[in-house]
Design goal:
Elements lengths: L3 H8 L1 H7 L19 E4 L5 E10 L8 H16 L19 E3 L1 E6 L12 E7 L4 E9 H14 L6 E4 L1 E5 L5 E7 L7 H13 L4 E5 L15 H6 L9 H12 L4 E8 L14 E2 L21 E2 L5 H16 L4 E5 L5 H4 L3 H8 L4 H19 L3 E5 L1 H4 L16 E5 L3 H10 L3 E4 L2 H4 L44 H5 L9 H4 L2 E8 L9 H5 L2 H10 L11 H17 L10 H5 L9
Parallel strand pairs: 2-3, 4-6, 9-10, 9-18, 10-11, 11-14, 14-15, 15-16, 16-17, 17-18
Antiparallel strand pairs: 1-8, 2-7, 5-6, 5-8, 12-13
Helix pairs in contact: 3-4, 5-7, 8-11
Length: about 600
Amino acid sequence: MASFLLLLSLLDAIFLAATFSTASPPPEIQINVWPKPTSVSWSDAAPIAVALSPSFRIPNPYPDNPYLRAATARYTRLLHAERHVPLRPPPLNLSSNAPPLASLSISVADPSAPLVHAVDESYRLSISADNSSSAAELVAATTWGAIRGLETLSQLAWGDPPAVPAGIRIEDRPLFPHRGLLLDTSRNYYPVRDILRTIRAMSHNKLNVFHWHITDSQSFPILLPSVPDLALRGSYGPSMRYSPEDVRRVVRYAMRRGVRVVPEIDAPGHTGSWAEAYPEIVTCANRFWAPPDGPALAAEPGTGQLNPLEPKTYDVVRSVLRDVAALFPESFLHAGADEVNTACWEQDPVIKRFLNAGGTHGQILETFVNSTRPFIVSALNRTVVYWEDVLLGSVAKMGSASMLPPETTVLQTWNNGPNNTKVLTAAGYRVIVSSWNFYYLDCGFGGWPGNDSRYDRQIADEQGQPFNYAGGDGGSWCAPFKSWQRVYDYDITYGLSESEAVLVLGGEVALWSEQADGSVVDGRLWPRAAAAAEALWSGNRDEAGGKRYAEATDRLAEWRQRMVERGIAAEPIQPLWCIRNPTMCNMVQ
């Protein structure tokens, strides 16, 4: 399937050679498509724009395909309704001779291909026009590639009434198969409408994985049929829970937009909220997180971890995982395993006796993983995803990588930038990259714990303890703020050998929600997540191998403007004056 478009190109090479030039488009012709397509070529004739017919339609040749049926209807409505006026319109003259474009023909090689990891998302979109006719054709390997092509067509249209470029051919495919966004709905609750809007924005940016970090120590907001008390007692209240129907609605909505929903149930750490229903399986629950007479019991306020030495723990965990697998058809299931706090475990007398007898924290984690991982892989038929800590944690970590077979395990990095990615790929693991140095979108907003006297400094910080001044982090552990440029410029395979680089599935930007909820989510995510979307789809380098952040600036400003028009409250990246005065806002002219 991956070679489908190549084969098709060989079959119609004569036609294409007669119609299109293989040269790159002239520099002055800039189309406003985000993420930037892999390949854009133009016909030998002078490129023009043609009007979109008032009766423009997208016939669906696959009426039994519900996803393509929904997509063709959705994009037909968008193309007719949207009247986007670019800040800098493409330099194309509207043809007075060519007839308006009346329809788009679609051809899909494998319309039944399911939405799974590494599904072929390639497509080819061509629009031609002369004095007698105008035509547009979308050819894709799968339904999901066709949806990506429809998004591209929608972004090509501009003006009132709308027009599209003619004499253009776009051949496009993603650089990485996993292009994701993590949203934490435990620290603060997000109404379903905000999750759906986020997924819609993802589809506009060709992101294809919504990593739903559903539960954490602060709340357990998902209502599961087998263990309902976890949400009834562990959520923030009746209006802040996700019912099974809510989950099914999110999954359906995402599927129709080519977005996979990967659920995460983080354990054994980050499980304080479970103690509201099952206190007997959680250690150090509801303690002050940073006691003055001992080590911290959690990385942040909200203590509690599952007890791997308590047999009942596994009855509850298996019920949770079974219900989650029934609600989410996705083949990846994220099982967390990050930031296990050893001091928290040591509050339990059974664990303390185990440690005093010569046992280790690593063995306790191994007990949990070895008791849950086979259930996920064999009984639930899922590929299990863990955070890197399961192997690279400072104290509590698996003693041997052989306990985590790479064939059924994916690891997600978040520390030490490219270094941890290299360690894990060198060990043979498939990796999803979420390095906080680049991809954490919650960084740089200051601290959130209360009664912190460090902010009360009128002139300078305490000697040798920068906080508000002289490079201090202002209470944000992962400061500074990750600008779109920082996100865009991350090379997630940096320093890897060729054999290691192929194990990088892709990346995910992450929004941890200690200081975010639905009222601010759009601005926190966009357009910075869009910067990651382009880097993961077509890369962050030009044809000569140089970073293209300079030319991306104006394009992202344009795209941000269009996202706002589409109901996504993306933050501006510059004054509008900058895009109207090219190069005048650069650091170096």
